[in-house]
Amino acid sequence: MIDSNTQVTSTLLYLDDVSVSFDGFKAINGLSLAIEPGEMRAIIGPNGAGKTTMMDIITGKTRPDTGDVLFEGQMDLTQHDETEIAQAGIGRKFQKPTVFESQTVRENLELALSGNRGVWASLFYRESEADAARIEEILQTVRLQQRANELASDLSHGQKQWLEIGMLLAQDPKLLLVDEPVAGMTDAETVETAKLLREISKTHSVIVVEHDMGFIRDLDVKVTVLAEGSVLAEGSLDHVSAHPDVIESYLGR
Amino acid sequence: MISAFLFRGLAGRIAWVAAFIALLGILVPLSNLMLPSDHALYVPDYIVSLFGKYLTYALLAMALDLVWGYCGILSLGHGAFFALGGYAMGMYLMRQIGSRGVYGDPILPDFMVFLNWKELPWYWYGFDQFWFAAIMVLAIPGLLAFVFGWFAFRSRVTGVYLSIITQAMTYALLLAFFRNDMGFGGNNGLTDFKDILGYTLQNPATRAGLFAAAAFALSLALVISSAIVRSKFGKVLLATRDAESRARFLGYRVEHVKLFVFTLSAMMAGIAGALYVPLVGIINPGEFAPANSIEVVIWAAVGGRGTLIGPIIGAITVNLGKSWFTAQFPEYWLFVLGGLFVAVTVFMPKGMLGTLSSFSDKVKSLKPAPKPSQTEAGEMRKEGEAS
């Protein structure tokens, strides 16, 4: 009893028996998941397994029908909206790279930079040296210094993905949700992205959803396999890929 | 802090345009009042009134641009905020008539005497004072926009649905103001004004003063709007326009962003309406007509949305065209207006100003200059080889 209590409070993100259905279709079905502080977790699963819906629930876009979603052991995420959850320290990268296309790379990062998000604060905001240095540092991390003053719409697909990861870094959340970061990337870019995420995971907790098995192998972290809205298997990549249920759900019956 | 904020608004061509408009506000009245009528630079009275009216339209179009061009809120109800500001000013002007009305009642406006009303309705109290009316010019459109926006934005009504309910809002107000028992003069509205702040409205000097007020208001509103769109808040506005849910996931309270800019824009529209009414001498429910609000959208689109200056140019150009056409070929104006909107949408999606700037960009890029994109591509190739 005491054990499970301490477990809850030390866990960064805790989902317990979460279910949600859309028009009778159970997108998430009794899902339980715990992410420790500083952990990087990869989530895989076939199409329709509920990966994106799970992210929607964590970030407040979708409200679950039943179950608990706790952040840092005390914040009930089902009771807050996207803005509050983002301000509490959960950042999200979308499956399709979503950056502010009509603004420059630097402006995108400036918007993401952590700080007061209020109307007055942004009206009278003046960039401090620390902020400018931080943006410069992130530009370097995501390898976009050369393109800092170009419109985000002019970036290549892979660069947009990196810009969005850079925006996540600027936001400096406690937990990063990264949805298919290497979709549409070249092999070289994929390797770079894995490096980048491993770097980020030294200072942040990260959940990565991805299809690309090579990429997951590069990340070298604990893997959770989702299927039909619940956890099918959990463990190292080798462990889960040897699991008979996983083989069946991926290869079909 | 405020001065630093406004100073940022004076960047680039905005400073020139704002200074030019303010200068017009000084020179046109001076020329109208000081020069003899046969002087080459003399501005006749009717031009002062006509262009004064255009300046108030320009302010309305710029206010719309702030919400539409920068925040993506296509309001088809900005005519309502304009009309409400106009009515607030009209109520002040009505009460200035005093016993000079047809029925000679010292308190009640003529239409109330005509309707056999015995006392002034409570909501007409205070409008005999200019300062009170001036506050109401801002407060009433602002409050309506705030309440409307509060419900609409919180419920995440966006896009065409929002446009439709703003149309419904102005249409509902149109119907309400048509009713005699609303107490705003019904069908006829408010008219027969005599003076403003003690100056006779028929006097050319008063008209020149109103022209100057319209020019200064437009100039100041342009600087304030420019300061807003150049601040970090302006970037948040664009972010909300382009990817609303992304802005939410970054932790921005999108509904507050929209509410602020919508309310501010409505207040600017209210000021425009308040300046318009003494210049044209009448305000009636026709100002709430849905078509009026749509016309404002056309001005902004023709001039170039998302530029602040474009809608000013668009409002003046389209209304010049309207004045000319309705005199020469009155029956064709609506076809021309419709055709203009279609043509701009299809051939100049960025409007006059946007097309002009992209043309000048093209001219610039034709000159031989080191192409940054090539050198960068080279560097990236090197990087790729290294890794």
UniProtKB/TrEMBL annotation, chain A:
- Domain ABC transporter: start-end pairs: 13-253
Q: Which GO terms describe its molecular function?
A: ATP binding; ATP hydrolysis activity
A single GO cellular-component term from the record reads:
plasma membrane
- State the SUPFAM superfamilies in the record: P-loop containing nucleoside triphosphate hydrolases (SSF52540)
Q: Which InterPro entries match?
A: AAA+_ATPase, ABC_AA/LPS_Transport, ABC_transporter-like_ATP-bd, ABC_transptr_urea_ATP-bd_UrtD, BCA_ABC_TP_C, P-loop_NTPase
Gene3D superfamilies to which the protein is assigned, alphabetical: P-loop containing nucleotide triphosphate hydrolases
Does the keyword field hold Cell division?
no
Tell me which UniProt keywords the record has, alphabetically: ATP-binding, Nucleotide-binding, Transport
**Species this chain originates from:** Cohaesibacter marisflavi
Q: Transmembrane ranges?
A: none
- According to UniProt, the name of this protein is Urea transport system ATP-binding protein
Q: Which NCBIfam families match?
A: urea_trans_UrtD
UniProtKB/TrEMBL annotation, chain B:
The molecular function GO annotations come to: branched-chain amino acid transmembrane transporter activity
Q: Tell me where the transmembrane regions lie.
A: 12-34, 54-73, 80-98, 130-153, 160-178, 208-229, 259-284, 296-320, 332-349
Task: Recite the UniProt keywords alphabetically.
Answer: Cell membrane, Membrane, Transmembrane, Transmembrane helix
GO CC aspect terms: plasma membrane
- Pfam families the UniProt entry points to: BPD_transp_2 (PF02653)
* InterPro entries linked to this entry: ABC_transp_permease, ABC_transptr_urea_perm_UrtC, LivM-like
User: How does the record say this protein sits in the membrane?
Assistant: Multi-pass membrane protein
The keyword Membrane is assigned to this record: yes
Q: Where is this region: Disordered?
A: 362-387
Bias kind Basic and acidic residues: ranges: 378-387
List where in the cell it is found: Cell membrane
Instruction: Tell me where on the tree of life, at the top rank, the source sits.
Output: Bacteria
Is this entry keyworded DNA repair? Answer: no
NCBIfam families from the UniProt entry = urea_trans_UrtC (TIGR03408)
Can you name this protein? Amino acid/amide ABC transporter membrane protein 2, HAAT family (TC 3.A.1.4.-)
What is the organism field in this record? Cohaesibacter marisflavi
